[in-house]
Amino acid sequence: MIVYDWEYPRQPGVEGTGAYTNRDEAETEGAEFAFGWHITDTLILSGTYTYCESRSKKNSEQFRTPQIARNKANLDISYTHDRFSFNIHPYYSGPGLRWKGDIEMEEYIRIWQGDSASGKVSVFTAESKTYLMIKPKKAQDMSSRAFMPL
Question: What one-character DSSP code corresponds to residue 141?
């Protein structure tokens, strides 16, 4: 398993410590549930739930694997009619260790909304703050996207 080891010495001439490195072993157990339901010809509901318990070892000492939340879930509601489509997609990620493995990061919820006319709108919460991101439909309009706290 490759993880970021904060204590790993870097190559000569490179300041600081830490690098991605192989660990002795990794154990991952969990379960995943997925469903999809065509409510009508134009309306689809689908989603997943994942539970993952992941641990890695370094010198026979076990650690919870960084950046892997134990609980994740998402839901997708899609509506399509002729040339119009609309989608809303809430996503939940439970607490997990940050890349360094030293701090438990807060859970967060992200909600994406998109349609065939305007592009994609995302709302998400992280560390008790809520953000809004607006991404236009056309690729050349990407410079005009907005990312702001609410």
Answer: G
* 52 vs 68: CA distance, rounded Å: 8
**Long-range CB pairs of 140-147, under 8 A, 24+ apart, other chains included:** none
pLDDT in tens, the chain (150 residues): 666 777 777 777 777 777 777 766 778 899 999 999 999 999 999 999 999 998 877 777 788 887 788 999 999 998 888 877 788 888 999 888 876 777 888 888 888 777 655 556 656 565 566 666 656 555 444 444 444 444
By CB neighbour count within 10 A (0-12 exposed, 13-18 middle, 19+ buried), where does 66 fall? buried
User: Cα separation of 23 and 81, whole Å?
Assistant: 50
State the Cα–Cα distance between residues 70 and 78, nearest whole angstrom: 27
**What predicted TM-score, i.e. pTM, was given to this entire model?**
0.65
Largest Cα–Cα distance in the chain? 62
Closest CA to 75 of 112, 130, 124, 129: 112
* DSSP-derived pairing of the beta strands 71-81 and 43-58: antiparallel
